[in-house]
Design a protein that fits this description.
The complex is a heterodimer of chains A (222) and B (256). Chain A is mainly alpha-helical and 222 residues long. Helix content of chain A is 18%, strand content 5%. Chain A has helices at residues 2-24, 102-111, 191-194, 216-219; strands at residues 95-96, 160-161, 173-174, 177-178, 182-183, 188-189. Chain A starts with a helix and ends with a helix. In chain B, the strands form 2 sheets. A two-stranded antiparallel sheet of chain B has the order 1-4. Chain B has a two-stranded antiparallel sheet with strand order 2-3. Chain B has helices at 46-50, 115-124, 150-156, 216-219, and strands spanning 185-186, 203-204, 207-208, 213-214. Residues 1-23 and 251-256 of chain B have low confidence and may be disordered. Classes of the chains: A mainly alpha (222), B little secondary structure (256). The A-B interface holds A 88-92, 140, 143, 145, 148, 153-156, 194, 203-204, 210-213, 216-217, 221-222 and B 37-39, 46, 64-68, 71, 73-78, 83-84, 86-87, 116, 135-139, 141, 210-211, 223.
């Protein structure tokens, strides 16, 4: 009697274990943002003021910037920026804005190398004793090229109005999103189309893995 | 080694296209991706990089991505001179080039390859290794190139019984290109009246010119091997040649 109960119990347990595996091993499990353990956590970065918080280097809950990025706690670069557009490239067919737009300006507020990484508008607790060091992004060297500068012509085009009508070698967007993963911003490709600044699961901050150039080919038909 | 071809005619394109009798595209060995995209072509260097054949070990670094052997989204090297090729991830080659030289040629020839053709030469002239890229992808950026150049590829992948069944004879362009089809040459039919078709809107016969010039990508589209040798159009019956040239001489080599 006990043996039979044990057999049926282990059978049920096995079935439940398999079911659990099937449920959790879905196609694209949502990635958990991990900004605290990423390079965008600048509270512990040497050379920068430690404000004791992670988010404050970019965001503030009150009286932040009203445009380009949510509750933005930084000023935007003055430029001017050189864009990757048709005056520079003989191969681009989509329309590129005259200057960076929207969320790209937020990224460039650090990544153009002109504003100190810890120079923020609102400091935590209005603690006037804490002043930013003013240190800007390090100069590029070797395999480090995060400092884009203001000449963006050697970078993937941004502020491009995404239009497979203009260039059929591109996959269609649907509902403002390409490939179900890459968002457009007011119809444009911006930094945030490929990058999620809070998630470094796919270094560097890519929304998708680029293994096999999968990220590239989400848009590009090549 | 320089092969001097006696010039019976100004046309030399067919001289590089002796393989017209072969099928539209070479048979791909098993294991190579199928389809029409670059991953299905010899420009997908992850395939030789992933090869488990003992002779292929240590020849081509696998960077984990297809596009990265030629392109990078950020911080690409600064190629001097306009136009700059799109987000190229290779150093600008500077070999001792000799430009094509044909007795009857009248069109203006640039003294050295333009950037549009130098991109191709950055692999095809044998001066820079195939996996020698400037920016490496983050997952593999601790690795280093393995530094095989394209002449080494051709040393085995040619001849009557090419290695792996992959015949890539002619893929290496010695920097002395005096016997190659003219490129970085200003397309101007008025210089050879009656010999060439007119250009229109920056193209001739559907083939693009670059700053008014014939360049490598005029005839070749590097991402698609719908026709062998990445030609933009079929050259059956010399139709690609005739996109620009008005006639092909009637001799056994050219008239295939």
């Amino acid at each position: 009697m006990r043996v039979r109960w044990l057999r049926s119990f282990t059978g049920l347990a096995t079935a439940l274990a398999w079911l659990a595996m099937l449920v959790t091993a879905g196609p694209a499990a949502a990635q958990t943002d991990n900004v605290t353990s990423s390079k965008h956590n600048m509270s512990s970065r040497s050379g920068l003021t430690d404000y004791g918080e992670v988010c404050v280097y970019c965001h503030t809950p009150h009286n932040g910037q009203t445009q380009n990025a949510p509750l933005w706690n930084r000023n935007f670069g003055a430029g001017p920026y050189d864009m990757y557009d048709a005056t520079y490239s003989s191969t681009i067919d989509m329309t590129v804005a005259a200057s960076p737009q929207g969320v790209s300006l937020a990224c460039l507020s650090c990544h153009d190398g002109t504003i100190g990484l810890d120079v923020i508008i609102n400091r935590p607790n209005a603690d006037t004793a804490l002043a930013g060091s003013g240190n800007t992004m390090p100069a590029n060297a070797g395999q480090y090229f995060a400092n884009l500068g203001t000449d963006l012509r050697n970078d993937h085009p941004i502020s491009v109005t995404y239009s497979p009508t203009d260039d059929p070698a591109f996959n269609a967007a649907s509902g403002g999103v390409i490939g179900g993963s890459l968002p457009l911003y007011t119809g444009r490709v911006e930094c945030g189309t490929c990058h999620n600044p809070h998630n470094t699961t796919n270094t560097p901050f890519l929304r998708l893995s680029n293994s096999g150039s999968n990220l590239c080919t989400t848009c590009h038909i090549k | 080694m320089i092969r001097w071809v006696p010039m019976r005619h100004a046309l030399s394109c067919a001289g590089a296209l002796l393989f017209l009798a072969l099928p539209a595209r070479a048979q791909r060995p098993a294991g190579w991706p199928s389809g029409t995209l670059v991953q299905a072509t010899p420009h997908n260097l992850t395939v030789p990089a992933a090869s488990t054949a003992p002779v292929m070990t240590g020849r081509v670094r696998h960077w984990g991505e297809v596009c990265v052997y030629c392109h990078t989204p950020h911080g690409g090297p600064d190629w001097s001179g306009a136009p700059r090729p799109p987000l190229v991830n290779r150093t600008r080659p500077n070999a001792a080039y000799r430009m094509p030289q044909h007795g009857a040629q009248q069109m203006l020839q640039d003294p050295s390859p333009s950037n549009q053709s130098r991109v191709c030469l950055s692999c095809h002239d044998g001066s820079i290794a195939l996996d020698n890229i400037v920016n490496r992808p983050q997952p593999t950026n601790a690795l280093t190139p393995l530094n095989e150049t394209i002449d080494r590829c051709e040393s085995c992948h040619k001849g009557g019984n090419p290695a792996g069944g992959l015949d890539w004879e002619g893929v290496w362009f010695n920097p002395d290109m005096r016997d190659q089809h003219p490129f970085s040459v200003v397309y101007d039919p008025s210089r050879r009246p009656g010999q060439f078709k007119p250009a229109s809107g920056g193209t001739v016969g559907g083939l693009p010119l670059f700053s008014g010039r014939v360049e490598c990508p005029t005839c070749h589209e590097p991402h698609t091997e719908q026709f062998r040798y990445f030609l933009r159009q079929s050259n059956v019956g010399n139709s690609l040649c005739l996109a620009c040239h008005n006639s092909v001489p009637a001799d056994p080599v050219h008239a295939q």
